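Input record, target 12 of the design panel.
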């Protein structure tokens, strides 16, 4: 802002593949390996190999669409996702097949990061996709220490078409900024001081430890033993350093996010075909974007 820092991305995170080390020796690295592994598990074991939060599908895999050659929005922020419909199908069909072939629990279609966890606590699954801080927020508080110690995490599987290429793990988080209030200079000054305080290294270290997030100040990660000794945080850092992806900030992306999430849920649950679900999503996206821009 006028050549000076006006806001700071305070913390970040990304989804990981959590798994029980006593049950999963070699976590699948690609989607194709994931489907084959889940099918083999279903034949030979109780329960399912894994679960995932279909409510958070776009958070999990939004970056792969662009890595495969798609584009969510154009330079003006208008939606362009359906110009690459075949790529949309390629990143959604495998996760329709998982439900249709009973390779994940049926309730996965409705679950988010938190509501999927009872399946984990009940040992109905051996692994799950979830935010990197789920080990602090869910596993550690709800499992006996000896069972919690069995859990590890690695990066999410990716489309085989991206093998050896730039993959994508979505970087989420919060930006802290002061809001300009020209009608109240004292309040504006106080807001600026609060931002400076809340984003300094000490505050970043304390608040991010509490939430299980990654600080955006590299020095905090480099110098604080908490981050150096947390293997889940180190895996997250590796994923974001090598393949971090930040979704578009354009308002149209939020419309796309919601419509495609519902499309996937509709197709996976059998309410409609994927083709029909995408047709409905395209109509909804175009209509809501037209309302947005007037």
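The sequence produced for target 12 reads:
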């Amino acid at each position: 802002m006028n050549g000076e820092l006006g806001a700071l991305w305070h913390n970040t995170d990304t989804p990981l593949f959590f798994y029980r080390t006593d049950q999963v020796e070699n976590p699948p690295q690609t989607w194709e390996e994931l489907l084959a592994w889940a099918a083999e598990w279903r034949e030979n074991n109780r329960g399912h190999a894994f679960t995932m939060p279909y409510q958070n599908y776009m958070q999990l895999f939004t970056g792969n669409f662009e890595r495969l050659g798609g584009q969510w929005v154009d330079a003006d922020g208008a939606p362009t996702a359906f110009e690459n419909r075949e790529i949309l199908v390629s990143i959604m069909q495998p996760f329709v097949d998982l439900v249709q072939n009973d390779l994940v629990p049926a309730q996965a279609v409705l679950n988010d990061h938190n509501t999927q966890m009872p399946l984990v606590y009940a040992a109905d699954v051996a692994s799950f996709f979830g935010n990197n801080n789920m080990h602090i927020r869910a596993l550690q508080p709800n499992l006996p220490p000896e069972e919690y110690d069995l859990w590890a995490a690695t990066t999410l599987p990716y489309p085989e078409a991206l093998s050896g290429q730039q993959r994508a793990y979505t970087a989420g988080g919060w930006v802290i900024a002061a809001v300009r209030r020209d009608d109240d200079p004292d309040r504006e000054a106080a807001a600026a001081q609060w931002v400076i305080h809340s984003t300094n290294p000490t505050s970043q270290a304390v608040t991010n430890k509490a939430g299980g997030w990654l600080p955006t100040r590299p020095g905090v990660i480099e110098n604080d033993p908490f981050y150096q000794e947390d293997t889940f945080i180190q895996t997250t850092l590796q994923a974001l350093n090598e393949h971090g992806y930040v979704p578009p900030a354009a308002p149209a992306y939020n419309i796309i996010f919601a419509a495609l999430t519902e499309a996937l849920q509709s197709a996976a649950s059998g309410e409609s075909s994927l083709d029909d679900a995408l047709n409905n999503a395209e109509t909804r996206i175009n209509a809501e974007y037209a309302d947005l821009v007037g």
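Strands lie at 7-13, 15-20, 127-131, 151-154, 169-170, 172-177, 214-215, 244-245.
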